[in-house]
Automatic annotation (TrEMBL):
Keywords: Cell projection, Cilium, Flagellum, Membrane, Metal-binding, NAD, Oxidoreductase, Transmembrane, Transmembrane helix, Zinc. The chain crosses the membrane at residues 168-188. It comes from Amphiprion ocellaris (Clown anemonefish). SUPFAM superfamilies: GroES-like, NAD(P)-binding Rossmann-fold domains. One of its GO terms (cellular component) is motile cilium. One of its GO terms (biological process) is sorbitol catabolic process. Its cofactor is Zn(2+). This is Sorbitol dehydrogenase. It is found in: Cell projection, Cilium, Flagellum.
Amino acid sequence: MAQENLAVVVHSPGDLRLENLPIPEPEPNEVLLQMHSVGICGSDVHYWQYGRIGDFVVKKPMVVGHEAAGRVVKVGSAVKHLNVGDRVAIEPGVPRETDEFFKNGRYNLSPTIFFCATPPDDGNLCRYYKHSANFCYKLPDNVTFEEGALIEPLSVGIHACRRAGVTLGSVVLICGAGAIGLVSLLVAKAMGASQVIVTDLSPERLKMAKQLGADFQLTVKKGDSSEQLAKSVHEILGAQPHVTIECTGVESSIQTAIYATRSGGVVVLVGLGSPMTTIPLINAAVREVDIRGVFRYCNTWPMAIAMLSSGKVNVKPLVTHRFPLEQALEAFETTRQGVGIKVMLKCDQNDLNP
């Protein structure tokens, strides 16, 4: 095992560095992983640019990265289900205690949860990383490391579609064709949605949405009113959607989501924007449109692995750029500029394959 553990570390706003860190030793219930593929998320870029997201503030140097897959190189003494050499996808949120949220299956809401690359917890954009073995999931032979890393954003889509109640025959509106909007599209289709319409400002992203199975695309123009956009959605579909998954966090888009959704339907808010947002709440209330939040995900990795392994979902087109770990700063700049969809960092010098 190489003794170098190169890691991508945020020190303060605008200060992102490549540093060598000690290789960690796994505890009895942990495994040490040689990282292979780690995707860059918008939140990683946000911590680099601003040093905080909401109440989560970078107060000490923090390793970034939480969309990840790697290979087991050392196994803790109490671990029974994983062996050296196993290829695994990492679920980044690990409960620290058996609280009420853990017991009722909604551990993502636990206030004390460990979460990769959320202050003060380090992420896994490095050569070697240790993680709870119970939150490492073995990858089938026909699922690549990159697909394993993409299970993290895919899980957001699964959790959103579950919260929305997407089922056979659902008509779905997805606001935003970034990575999360696109995985929500893939999951909605896999769960049986009959029609999915995707909106975005970018024609290029809508082209990708069409490639991934969107039935309709609607280009949003700055200055379009929320009610007019909702009317356009209705006209294109010939009906109002049962479910809207809002992935932008933009106030006007949330307003469109509410106006567009049919009475008795569900709006799920995935995108995070301003803490205070003006929305047509009475319109939602009198039409019994349920507004539901999403915070990360829980209990999604097994379903995601089954979706990928069976071929029901194809996330491979989402990866548009790849960089070796040594070029992490360039990779982050590419993501910051909004180029492509998903930038993937390759952490294993000896294996740069997907």
